[in-house]
Amino acid sequence: YLIKMAAAAGIQSTRAPFCTPPQTSSAHLTTRSRACNLAPKVVPFTSSSSCLPKGASLQSYSFFPSTLHLSKSIKREPVQFSRKTTVVHASASENGASSGLSIDLRGKRAFIAGIADDNGYGWAIAKSLAAAGAEILVGTWVPAMNIFETSWKRGKFDESRILPNGSLMEISKIYPMDAVYDTPEDVPEDVKSNKRYAGASNWTVQELAECVKQDFGSIDILVHSLANGPEVIKPLLETSRNGYLAAISASSYSFVSLLKYFIPIMNPGGSTISLTYIASERIIPGYGGGMSSAKSALESDTRVFQLFFASLDINIAGTK
């Protein structure tokens, strides 16, 4: 999983002109083999579940933009997909990072949007990045902020914070956030007056990015670990328009918003990663309310951003 995070951070990435995926029958199409029509050569990485929540599994695709400026002369060639198994060894070192890791993210700063406990993928990714030496910043949904901070301070997460070298994962700062709202002007009055938001400030995406810039200057890695569907248990035909659009807003457009405001404070060679779900391409009973559509939109947007940021030396990746 650390290798996967390294790929997201642009470490040892292979860059190639944009090209189309190989021809394959529709019966055998998978996200990995059809990452996107614009995807360059895929970088193999290890898939390890050691850092994931118990019982969780992860299928992944990873793709990287070329830093070359686009032109009509770009040569297109089939993508070659392969798997490579890499054994990662971790051992303690003086600087706190695991000296046996195949990647080194010391000096890098990562912002993970969407951590509110120690059970989700966001937490697992934060631990992987921290184990590789990265500084960790976290964005937590405003209504969950108080509980998360209190649990952190009281040591309720200490066991989950243990890294491969025996040290505890540190979080430099926990920020309140609600990625459904881009700017303060977007927040409706009923939300502003809601007691769950009382006492919180600077939690829209624009304000959040400004606060991170003021506190730390820049980031190197941005992780989108956000999803919410208020009507997720409803079949699609029973989903209301508001419920459907709410799922899209929180689960996919939030990625668009984060990139809009965080890319300006991202260092050259920086990376972003979005987390999607297999329901984007398969029917998953019980996963309704427009959430499967939201995950499909997230994957599509991730592919579009590959092309959009290709000339800016920004790596865009997605995983499921």
What's the gist of this structure?
The protein has 320 residues and is an alpha/beta fold. It has helices spanning 2-8, 121-131, 142-153, 189-192, 205-216, 241-262, 291-308, and strands at residues 60-61, 109-113, 135-141, 173-177, 219-224, 266-275, 315-319.
How would you characterize the overall build of this protein?
It comes from Taxus chinensis (Chinese yew). This is Enoyl-ACP reductase. One of its GO terms (biological process) is fatty acid biosynthetic process. One of its GO terms (molecular function) is enoyl-[acyl-carrier-protein] reductase (NADH) activity. InterPro entries: Enoyl-ACP_Rdtase_NADH, NAD(P)-bd_dom_sf, SDR_fam. The protein is α/β, with parallel strands linked by helices and 320 residues long. The chain has one domain: NAD(P)-binding Rossmann-like Domain (Rossmann fold), CATH 3.40.50. About 27% of the residues have low confidence. The chain starts with a helix and ends with a strand. The chain has a 7-stranded mixed beta sheet, sandwiched between helices. α5 runs parallel beside α6. The chain is built from 7 helices and 7 strands, in the order αββαβαβααβαβαβ. The longest helix is centred in the last third of the chain and has 22 residues.
Characteristics:
320 residues, alpha/beta, Rossmann fold, 7 strands, 27% helix, oxidoreductase, Enoyl-ACP reductase, fatty acid biosynthesis, lipid metabolism, enoyl-[acyl-carrier-protein] reductase (NADH) activity
